[in-house]
Amino acid sequence: PPPPPPPPPPPPPPPIQHHRHPPTLKASLLMLADSDGGPRGTGSGPWFKTAASQAVTSEASNSIESKHTAPIVYRCEDRSLPYPPIPDNTEGIPAFTDIVDMFPDGASLIVDVGGGAFGTNKEWVENHFKGKTTMLVADPFRRTREHNEKVQLAVERAKGADVVTSMSVLNVIPTLEGQLEHVRVCFRALRPGGLAFFKVWAGSWPKRGTGEQEIDEKRGVCQNNKWASDFLPAVIKVFGKGAKAFADNNSNLIVVRRSLKGGNDDS
Q1: 234: closest CA among 38, 33, 29, 41?
Q2: What is the DSSP letter of 215?
Q3: 188 or 14, greater pLDDT
């Protein structure tokens, strides 16, 4: 009789997945939002992925509560070059002092996405507008799920906020997809025609503005060291190519207006 056929070859081993950064890194979950809405990315349902976001904290990257209105000034210890001092206008009350006059007249509702656990920024902004404006804060790490859901419900009942702010958040999210998800939350919170303000810390010397990412895995924090203009494409991707937007690296600032049509083009 003929010899038996050879046994089939073993299945190939599964492909090795190479992660540029560990997938469990806490910072990689920062500000992830639900994206049920499909490829356009505006999403529906809860703003934040509660199962992942609410179980993880970002204590190490949370802002320190302060009532000072003057920005902290950082000086470089590296004396090899005459690096100039850097005033930080991206966190705390100083993140708002130079932009509140840019808010539209009659703005009655402001939402700060990723605003931390403290209420000093909210108090200062509401006092600045003499009680004519309400500021709500949502944060997947530093606020409870119940709090975030109440904020989302209030914003949806109001048909969106007049102004949405994001202070020193994009610069600590290590992945592009995570950055897009954060921008999507801001987009969803904003009414058509409203303004979104993103403040971005470009890092400290000598890596400031270089785009050389730094990740502290032990503390679970990230710093992208990018200029505000480097994040503008992600903002435009969510808000749509027809959105009016600009980036000012001198002010660490991106401003974008949501289209009156209420939709985005290509995110």
Answers
A1: 41
A2: E
A3: 188
Confidence at 192, pLDDT banded by 50, 70, 90: very high
Backbone phi and psi for residue 236, each to the nearest 5 degrees, phi listed first: -65, -35
Distance CA 112, CA 198 (A): 10
- Tell me the C-alpha distance between 131 and 119, whole Å: 15
Residues 10-18 have a mean pLDDT of 42
CB–CB of 28/175 below 8 Å?
A: yes
What is the distance between the alpha carbons of residues 53 and 70, in angstroms, rounded to a whole number? 32
Looking at residue 45, what is its pLDDT? 87
Residue 122 contacts residue 135 (beta carbons within 8 Å): yes
CA atoms within 13 A on the CB side of 204: 8
pLDDT digits (tens, 9 = 90+) for 134-153: 999 999 888 999 999 999 99
Name the pTM for this structure.
0.80
Residue 109 has which token pair?
């509702």
Q: Please tell me whether the peptide bond between 104 and the residue prior to it is cis, using omega within 30 degrees of 0.
A: no
Q: Distance between CA atoms of 257 and 150, rounded to whole angstroms? A: 25
Owner of token pair 């004396």 = 79
From residue 246, how far is each of 138, 168, 239, 251, 254 by CA, in Å?
25, 17, 12, 11, 6
